[in-house]
Design goal:
Layout (H helix, E strand, L loop, with lengths): L2 E10 L2 E11 L4 E5 L6 H9 L6 E6 L2 E2 L4 H7 E4 L11 H11 L5 H12 L15 H13 L5 E5 L7 H14 L4 E5 L3 H7 L2 E6 L2 E7 H7 L4 E7 L5 H5 L6 E4 L4 E6 L2 H14 L4 E6 L4 H9 L3
């Protein structure tokens, strides 16, 4: 596993900002780290990068401990903080050369700078001072510095803040490409971002993880009331449908269309296709519902 987190905790005075958080992330996985303001997202990310020491618990990046081997961790992590700290008086390339020096890239630094400028779409503004850039281009510079040393792990806190729709599409595509051979964890308040980019979502609330699964599983099975909507070419009875394993309730929508309620959408889909084959029934359409991420997020993080 690229990232292993076990019982990670951060306490400020009497406040437990992060409370015994545990998860593992592997290479080639893009994970959305979600939660309301103050839930502990940024604090968790800062601990994983070595920016903040944990109060208790353990975490490792590429098998290096975040406390005892923090320099090795930082060599392997590209981090874009939410605040995106930049030197506004520096020219863009000058700043990236400075970051390349920090990572001891040597002669390879110039080529890496050219690569990340191209990857992040910074060419049109490459001769400007950072302070003269728009918010969207400043965000791109922050992403470029995170990518510069070609890290195995990317930790991105609100990576698309300030981007216009065209920039957004480009950066989303870049993150997806990077996620093919890196471990990527990103925090965002934009649920569409998670749906477009992520394979998995971790939801944290009041310092605790309240959900952690693939998006498809979260959307279908979060409240146990998923359903399939099916339309047959021939009439089918309610009793026949209820005999299919996994279906808990059926509702007739039209003469030949039904909603089939279940907590096991994938399993029922297989059973339904088998039923149609055995009983010589033709299925004209078959769709599964999925809860919106916004709905799931609200359910998981609502105040009690």
């Amino acid at each position: 596993m690229s990232i292993k987190v076990s019982e990670l905790t951060k306490v400020y005075g009497e406040q437990r900002a992060v409370d015994a958080v545990s998860f593992e992330l592997k290479k080639g996985e893009i994970t959305g780290f979600l939660g309301p303001n103050g839930a502990g997202k940024s604090t968790t990310m800062k601990m994983i990068t070595g920016f903040l020491p944990p109060t208790s618990g353990k975490a490792s990046v590429c098998d290096f401990d975040i406390v005892t081997q923090s320099l090795e961790v930082r060599k392997r992590v590209g981090y874009l903080p939410e605040s995106n700290p930049l030197y506004y008086d520096m020219y863009m390339r000058e700043f990236l050369e400075f970051i390349a020096g920090i990572h001891h890239l040597g002669k390879a630094g110039a080529q890496r700078i050219d690569t990340v400028i191209r990857q992040t779409g910074l060419q049109p503004e490459r001769h400007k001072k950072i302070g003269a850039l728009s918010n969207g281009y400043k965000q791109r510079v922050g992403l470029a510095q995170a990518l510069l040393h070609d890290p195995e792990v990317l930790i991105l806190d609100e990576p698309t803040t300030g981007l216009d729709p065209n920039q957004l599409a480009d950066i989303r595509q870049l993150i997806k490409e990077l996620g093919a051979n890196k471990t990527v964890i990103l925090s965002t308040h934009i649920m569409q971002e998670v749906a477009a980019l992520c394979d998995r979502a971790i939801i944290i609330n009041k310092g605790k993880i309240v959900a952690d699964d693939k998006l498809s599983v979260l959307q279908q099975n979060n409240t146990g009331n998923g359903y399939l909507q099916v339309t047959f070419a021939e009439p089918v009875t309610e009793a026949e449908l209820l005999s299919i394993g996994g279906i808990t309730r059926v509702v007739a929508v039209e003469e030949l269309s039904w909603q089939l309620f279940t907590s096991q959408v994938d399993e029922v889909r297989k059973n339904l296709l088998q039923f149609a084959l055995i009983n010589n029934r033709n299925i004209l359409s078959l769709q599964s519902n999925s809860q919106s991420l916004e709905t799931i997020f609200r359910e998981m993080t609502k105040s009690v």
